[in-house]
Amino acid sequence: AGIHSGSTMTDFDPSQVTIRHAATVMLIDDRPDLQVYIMERHADIVFGGGMWVFPGGRVDELDEAEIFAQYCQQRSDVEASALLHMPAGALTYYIAAIREAFEEAGILLALHRDTGKLLDLSEPAIARRFAAHRRDINDSNRNFIELLKEENLVLDVATMHYIARWITPEGPPRRYDTRFFITRMPASQTPIHDDHELVHAQWLAPQQILANFAAGSMTLMSPTLRMLRCLERFDSTAQVMAAAAANLPDERVRVSASGELVLPEDAGYAAADENIESGWVRLRPV
Questions:
Q1: Is-contact 222 56, C-beta < 8 A?
Q2: Which among 123, 184, 177 has a CA at the least distance from the CA of 156?
Q3: Is the C or the N end of the chain the one with fewer CB within 10 Å?
Q4: Does 5 score more than 90 pLDDT?
């Protein structure tokens, strides 16, 4: 999503809004309690302005599974598509989520091709080099795949797990079919929000974010809110990652009479409506 130019949006037909593909990744860590990295979007962003979100964005035309196959050695498109219940092309979502995490938060979920070791950005000189790569990609001066070629990297798709799918309900001028992933923050990297589309960022416990939301100091989209409520059921990153890796069956989200997004284990699910929000979640304790 881009920044508003200041012009007023013209009338539109909600039923004719194209649903775009998107991906987002929840970066978690023990600090020392379980925390998640969350960022505040610029107030003038076209979609979700002023909201607190996880790194993510629209799937790009260049995020093609066939193009990136050699850079995703740990997971094939066939395997990814089976996990996401798609006939083909699901690896595209993994690629988009990793690219967006780098563009928005400066985190590159990648391994050195020759050694299989995680990318280490703790050395200042290397950190500066990758910061320059990030600026070039954000300024459209180079493609993401060119960075991978130059640095001899492959994407760390094996430890990033698919946990949910959310489709924007009809109504807004922009709608997205978004796949949610989760992974552990690389120990040798430090997230830095882009300070353009994202104006603030914090590591917070899910319970604290939910408390801030209840107090009105943070604004969350309904899928973000629901995923945080799923995350607050865990005590550690290890627990979350074990549950995510289990790939439990998807549970359909429903909306209760009080407007809460509920799953089968929540009170009031049987009588709740599943025609208001389109969401499927598979993250829960095993």
A1: no
A2: 184
A3: C
A4: no
